[in-house]
């Protein structure tokens, strides 16, 4: 399967040039761009690890692409995403978030059902890869 | 306009009998509205021979303190404070029988935090008043002091996006079709296919409640099976608007509680449940971490005709106060009423921190929303993937685009229809961010994306000639003209 979180997961994976274009769009809007990585793609895993702080005051998308490739050297088998933060009043949140690196294989998620009272079912979703400890989930 | 009337002294004013409204104190051409006044703008069409100023004064009177005759009991109160004051009457640009009447209301006329109380005055008895042929509430200015007495949207655009983990693009939805007659099991099939194929949301239609062919618990249970399976299949947070509209508040709360117990992220209500019920559900939604979708069922009966009723821009303002998170606000290019400029005005009311006067989009007042959350507008009705560039151009990024037929009617099935829409959307946002002139190049951008996406190719082929190009019944009165300087 393919984890389709993020703004552009239904498009073919971006080249570094395409990533550069999208990052520059964020910078030109005044947003601080950040790189985050994880080996736990659960839909409600909010806090991926930060590859440094958001790059406030950085005018050049090339610096972000450089950092992304540094991150890939260590976490090339992880999910990596680009996130853009907007600090303007009324937003103060993320404005763009897209996946720029994936594990070579994505085994997907297990859906568990627990039958509770009546016909009610309680569901839980678990990434198949999370059976392994953090750091040894994707090859 | 000249008033031609002098203020009466107290003895003349309060002698028993009938007096023109404008002489009773409801016409004050020199009045300058206070920052704390509620201001309403009405389009009035007086009966033949009725002076427009008297008609405006009558509207002010009948929507505040007046009755048809002089009453001495006025003198027991600070009656001048409580009288609404018509202070400006303008001819409309295009129809000599219609006038714009500006009326200011003292804030103390209204109970804090109650749309029901506000509307009982502003659109109460006055709409049946005989000296008027027709009356339309066009816009309102709500003072900050009053705005702050309302909760506002339970969740708001920012937090909705954070909960859904979805940024940078419009959300995608579809209404399950056929809207009536599916069993719970069959209904959930449509939800599963559409969400797995790439939509963020599916939606109950306004008239899906609890009928013989599908009772509400069945729908909720099968829908949540579908939502969770789709979430597991994609790694995304998914939702389906479970319509909790019912005959009583008790029943609505019961259904909402069950939706929460099942883990739904969103519930839905219809406008026809009434303003108080909407405010109650918004409070429940805030207390229970639930996004609240409002389907504007019924609004067309009073919003569509230009001379009589209530403009949808006013309904949008009331609903932002009342506290809904989603509201259907038009598509521009789809099958339902919606002139582009007027629709932009509605979207601005839902999404801006502050609205500025913009006559070309029908916004007559500056409005400060005082940090009330923003409402996510929903575009639904006769839209398809081939219009993606126009939809993003007209409606922007913070909107739910709902393709019902445009998902479920896809020749390769529901999931393929959903995928076509998602690919078209992402390709267009990508092109926009990359600096392309996506409106002009829209068809090319879609054709390029379709090269690696067969479902999109098929969607573009089948719906390429579908447009709904009819004259709008509710276009703005003011059209910008180019000035030469």
Task: Explain how this protein is built.
The complex is a heterodimer of chains A (139) and B (485). With 139 residues, chain A is an alpha+beta fold. Chain A has a domain at 16-106: Ribulose bisphosphate carboxylase, small subunit (Ribulose 1,5 Bisphosphate Carboxylase/Oxygenase). Chain A has two helices and six strands. Chain A has helices at residues 16-28, 61-75, and strands at 32-38, 49-50, 79-86, 93-101, 109-115, 121-127. In chain A, strand 3 and strand 4 form a beta hairpin. In chain A, helix 1 packs across helix 2 (61-75). The two termini of chain A are 16 Å apart. The mean pLDDT of chain A is 95. Chain B is α/β, with parallel strands linked by helices and 485 residues long. Helix content of chain B is 38%, strand content 15%. Chain B has 18 helices and 15 strands. Chain B has helices spanning 10-14, 52-62, 79-82, 115-122, 144-147, 156-164, 184-197, 216-234, 249-261, 275-287, 300-303, 312-322, 340-351, 388-395, 405-408, 414-433, 438-450, 454-463, and strands at residues 38-46, 85-91, 99-105, 132-141, 171-175, 201-203, 239-243, 266-270, 291-295, 309-310, 326-328, 354-355, 367-368, 376-380, 400-402. Chain B has an eight-stranded parallel barrel, surrounded by five helices. In chain B, helix 9 (249-261) links the parallel strand 7 and strand 8 (266-270). The longest helix of chain B is centred in the C-terminal third of the chain and has 20 residues, at 414-433. The radius of gyration of chain B is 25 Å and the shape is elongated. The interface between A and B is large, with 41 and 39 residues.
Which helices and strands, and how do they pair?
The complex is a heterodimer of chains A (139) and B (485).
Chain A lengths: L15 H13 L3 E7 L10 E2 L10 H15 L3 E8 L6 E9 L7 E7 L5 E7 L12
Antiparallel strand pairs in A: 1-2, 1-3, 3-4, 5-6
Helix pairs in contact in A: 1-2
Chain B lengths: L9 H5 L23 E9 L5 H11 L16 H4 L2 E7 L7 E7 L9 H8 L9 E10 L2 H4 L8 H9 L6 E5 L8 H14 L3 E3 L12 H19 L4 E5 L5 H13 L4 E5 L4 H13 L3 E5 L4 H4 L5 E2 L1 H11 L3 E3 L11 H12 L2 E2 L11 E2 L7 E5 L7 H8 L4 E3 L2 H4 L5 H20 L4 H13 L3 H10 L22
Parallel strand pairs in B: 4-10, 5-6, 5-15, 6-7, 7-8, 8-9, 9-11, 11-14, 14-15
Antiparallel strand pairs in B: 1-3, 1-4, 2-3, 12-13
Helix pairs in contact in B: 7-8, 7-16, 12-13, 14-17, 16-17, 16-18, 17-18
């Amino acid at each position: 399967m393919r984890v389709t979180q993020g703004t552009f997961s239904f498009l073919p994976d971006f080249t570094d040039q395409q990533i550069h274009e999208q990052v520059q769009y964020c910078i030109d809007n005044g947003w601080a761009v950040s790189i985050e990585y994880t080996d736990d793609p659960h839909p409600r895993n909010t806090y991926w690890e930060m590859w440094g702080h958001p790059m406030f005051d950085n005018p050049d998308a090339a610096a972000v692409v450089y950092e992304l490739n540094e991150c890939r050297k260590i976490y090339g088998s992880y999910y990596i995403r680009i996130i853009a933060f907007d600090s303007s009043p009324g937003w103060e949140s993320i404005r763009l978030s897209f996946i720029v690196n994936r594990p070579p294989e994505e085994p997907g998620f297990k859906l568990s059902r627990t039958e509770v009272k009546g016909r009610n079912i309680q569901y839980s979703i678990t990434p198949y890869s999370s059976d392994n400890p953090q750091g040894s989930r994707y090859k | 306009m000249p008033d031609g009337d002098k203020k009466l002294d107290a003895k003349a004013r309060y002698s028993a009998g009938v007096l023109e409204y404008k002489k009773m104190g409801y016409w004050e051409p020199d009045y300058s509205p206070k920052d704390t006044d509620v201001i309403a703008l009405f389009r009035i069409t007086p009966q033949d021979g009725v002076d427009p100023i008297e008609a405006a004064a009558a509207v002010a009177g009948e929507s505040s303190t007046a009755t048809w005759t002089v009453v001495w009991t006025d003198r027991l109160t600070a009656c001048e404070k409580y009288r609404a004051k018509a202070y400006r009457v303008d001819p409309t640009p295009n129809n000599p029988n219609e006038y714009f009447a500006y009326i200011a209301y003292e804030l103390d006329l209204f109970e804090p935090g109650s749309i029901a109380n506000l509307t009982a005055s502003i659109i109460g008895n006055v709409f049946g008043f005989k000296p008027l042929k027709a009356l339309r509430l066009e816009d309102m200015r709500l003072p900050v002091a009053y705005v702050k007495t309302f909760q506002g949207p339970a969740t708001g655009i920012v937090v909705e996006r954070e909960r859904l983990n979805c940024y940078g693009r419009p959300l995608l939805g579809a209404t399950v079709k056929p809207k009536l007659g599916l069993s719970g099991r069959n209904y959930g099939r449509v939800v599963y296919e559409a969400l797995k194929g790439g939509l963020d949301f599916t939606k109950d239609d306004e008239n899906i409640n609890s009928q013989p062919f599908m009772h509400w618990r069945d729908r909720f249970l099968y829908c949540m099976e579908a939502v969770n399976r789709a979430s597991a299949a994609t790694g995304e947070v998914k939702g389906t608007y479970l319509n909790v509209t019912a005959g009583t508040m008790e029943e609505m709360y019961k259904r909402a509680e069950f939706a929460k117990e099942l883990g739904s992220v969103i519930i839905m209500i219809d406008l026809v449940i009434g303003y108080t019920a909407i405010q109650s559900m918004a409070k429940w939604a805030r207390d229970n971490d639930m996004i609240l979708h409002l389907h504007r069922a019924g609004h067309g009966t009073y919003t569509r005709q230009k001379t009589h009723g209530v403009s949808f821009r006013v309904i949008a303002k009331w609903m932002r106060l009342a506290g809904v998170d989603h509201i259907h606000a038009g598509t521009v290019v789809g099958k339902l009423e919606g002139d582009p400029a007027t629709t932009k005005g509605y979207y601005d009311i839902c999404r801006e921190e502050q609205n500025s006067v913009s006559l070309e989009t029908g916004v007559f007042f500056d409005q400060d929303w005082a940090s009330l959350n923003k409402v996510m507008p929903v575009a639904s009705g006769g839209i398809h993937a081939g219009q993606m560039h126009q939809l993003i151009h007209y409606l922007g990024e913070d909107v739910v685009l709902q393709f019902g037929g445009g998902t479920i009617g896809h020749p390769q099935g529901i999931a393929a229809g959903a995928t076509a829409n998602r690919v078209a959307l992402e390709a267009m946002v990508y092109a926009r961010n990359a600096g392309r002139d996506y409106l002009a190049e829209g068809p090319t951008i879609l054709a390029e994306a379709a090269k690696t996406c067969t479902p999109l190719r098929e969607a573009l082929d089948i719906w390429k000639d579908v447009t709904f190009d009819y004259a709008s019944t509710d276009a703005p009165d003011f059209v910008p003209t180019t000035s030469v300087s």
